[in-house]
């Protein structure tokens, strides 16, 4: 049930309109989708590699804390690319819906077309998220957009839908109204996010998300 709630939330939060990214050219011999950089008249393939950390063995009293942190880091890495894409294209949704401010039918048709297309592309991935990952995704969408997920649903789907999805979320220990708190409750998540923003992992995952849209 939580996975379905997250699907609806993700689908109505973002638009295909802003996904106008240039993808790699495909030929019959292509086997790997690869990023690239252009230098002068030459194009070079580009692959992002994860950082490798070498540390001393932790004392036993720190092992459980480290395991808990590693699980949190894994979960943040899993869902943060979705939050980034959602934030980037939500701006385009707002612009597009503003054009349909006086045309409820066009607005409804537009949102339905978005939900249908995104459902086709991301349904399987979002269904595989755990409850914990879903909770983190809700927080990170708030971080990236400046809006809590309840407000996003209310704006795009109406107050009744927002109440329904909030009720379902609470059944699974989630809260769509919760604000992201980088200084206290969510400070560990914030630390992980800032670290991801400084290394190649995030760039690579972001490229993969964009490539899924351009590779038709």
SS-derived structural category: mainly alpha
Kindly report the spatial arrangement of strands forming the biggest sheet: 1-2
Low-confidence spans: pLDDT under 50, at least 5 residues?
A: 14-24
General shape: globular
What summary fits the major beta sheet?
A: 2 strands, antiparallel
Helix content: 55-70%
Oligomer: single chain
- Please report which band the strand proportion falls in: under 5%, 5-15%, 15-25%, 25-35%, 35-45% or over 45%: under 5%
Beginning-to-end CA distance, first to last residue: 30 Å
Could you state the order of secondary-structure elements as H and E? Answer: HEEHHHHHHH
Mean pLDDT: 72
Evaluate the radius of gyration: 19 Å
Strand tally: 2
- How many separate domains make up the residues? 1
Q: Count of helices?
A: 8
Provide keyphrases for this structure.
globular; two-stranded antiparallel ribbon; 5% strand; single chain; mainly alpha; 216 residues
Task: Write a short abstract of this structure.
With 216 residues, the protein is mostly helical. The protein contains eight helices and two strands, in the order αββααααααα.
């Amino acid at each position: 049930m939580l996975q379905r709630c997250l699907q609806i939330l993700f689908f109505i939060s973002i638009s295909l309109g802003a996904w106008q990214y240039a993808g790699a050219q495909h030929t019959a011999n292509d086997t790997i989708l690869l990023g690239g950089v252009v230098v002068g008249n030459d194009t070079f393939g580009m692959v992002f590699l994860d950082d490798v950390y070498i540390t001393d063995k932790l004392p036993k009293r720190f092992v459980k804390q480290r395991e808990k942190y590693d699980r949190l880091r894994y979960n943040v890495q899993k869902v943060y690319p979705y939050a980034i894409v959602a934030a980037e294209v939500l701006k385009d949704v707002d612009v597009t819906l503003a054009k349909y401010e006086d045309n409820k039918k066009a607005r409804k048709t537009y949102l339905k077309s978005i939900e249908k297309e995104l459902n086709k592309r991301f349904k399987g991935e979002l269904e595989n998220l755990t409850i914990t990952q879903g909770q983190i995704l809700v927080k990170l969408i708030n971080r990236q957009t400046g809006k809590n997920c309840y407000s996003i649903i209310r704006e795009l789907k109406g107050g009744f839908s927002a109440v329904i999805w909030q009720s379902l979320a609470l059944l699974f220990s989630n809260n769509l109204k919760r604000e992201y708190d980088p200084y206290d409750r969510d400070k560990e998540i914030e630390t992980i996010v800032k670290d991801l923003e400084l290394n190649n992992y995030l760039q690579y995952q972001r490229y993969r998300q964009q490539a899924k849209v351009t590779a038709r």
